[in-house]
Amino acid sequence: MELDSEIVDFSFGVDMRYVYNDVKGFAVQEGPKVLTSSQIDTTSRTTYYRRDISPYFGTVTNQNQLDEMSKDILKNQKDPSKNFSIKLASSLKPFDGYSMGDNIRIRINRGRISLNQFFRVVGMEVSLDKSGVESVNPLLQVVRT
Question: In this structure, which CATH number among 3.30.1370, 3.30.1920, 1.10.260, 1.10.3100 belongs to the domain 18-77?
Answer without folding.
Answer: 3.30.1920
